[in-house]
Amino acid sequence: MTEERLQKVIAEAGLASRREAERMILAGRVRVDGKVVKQLGTKVSSFEQVVVDGQPVERQAKHTYLFYKPRGVVSTVKDEKGRKTVADYFQDLPYRLYPVGRLDYDTSGLLLMTNDGELANLLMHPKNEVNKVYVAKIKGQLTPSEIKALESGVRINKGKFKTKPARVKILKTDKKKDAQIVQVTIHEGHYHQVKEMFLAVHHLVDRLSREKYSFLTLDGLISGQYRELTHKEIDKLKQVD
To answer: What EC number(s) does its UniProt record assign (predicted)?
Structure first.
């Protein structure tokens, strides 16, 4: 069962800032299931009723979806160029969802959509090193030294960053077309990272898809479809902390 700090619940309901919510708690203005709570840091579950100054707090339900993002879709809520966005696929839902991180316009695959800001921040924080598995179709064929370079870390974005060690696996080689299908596992999220990594070893990416995020996969979905994560899956994602 997921629990949240009382002051966070009050703040997310729009009643006050977290600092103000703490003052409300200390002043005895908050009740949980009918009992006055004055202890800061108290955690409450979604089944407990929170009341401030006699008024029940309406708590927004948290939702997180696994979305199979198609190519040609922007990973934002709005796009000034009028292109289709990931939010367009969720218009019928009674709450707004935001992407956790991003996938490039021409990259397809697994993208999480959520209204749980705490979960999103947890997953995107660099220290948590959430594995992301991509499959790329590249021009040419990787040499052993190029694979070693990718696995050790390469300079990308005009030398600004050196990537952390990655895992590289050749899935298929087409010698006639001089192309390869390559699986790459990383846990960073630099702009155009996978494309830039291959560019650093002199290979262009023709197609790119994210196939896995942490333990989550696209199994059972086709491009443009989504499903809501279970409580068990969300709890497992939060264990990266």
So the answer is: 5.4.99.-
